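Possible regression after last week's pipeline update?

I re-ran a chain I had predicted before the update to compare outputs. Posting the input and the new output here so someone can diff against the archived version. Not blocking, just want to make sure nothing changed silently.
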Amino acid sequence: EVQLVESGGGLVQAGGSLRLSCAASGFGFDDYVIGWFRQAPGKEREGVSCRMSEDGSTYYADSVKGRFTISSDNAKNTVYLQMNSLKPEDTAVYYCGATTTPYYSGLWYLNNGMDTWGKGTPVTVSS
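New output (post-update):
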């Protein structure tokens, strides 16, 4: 069973940085897609960034391009989201999601979601 545990959220001032971590376990396959999503109060969940394990390709929402970076440490089975130049509109609960043996492109999963989710970690950016 795939399990995802997020950490690293918190309160930060606008312009600051945070690094989120997602510890993954239970992956029985080498081929998967893993990424970050967020949901602000009163808004729908949106895809932030994801990474394909097969070729390491990454995808980003337009709103975070140039500010956020997704990376992974395979030895630790952990995926990170480095968030720089944070804005108040980045305030949300951030969720890690993953799908094993992906069929579609990373962009498709970013737009449609994943099969397995963590419980989320809150990020608050103050102005």
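Follow-up from reviewer: compared with the archived run. The mean pLDDT is 95. Marking as no regression found.
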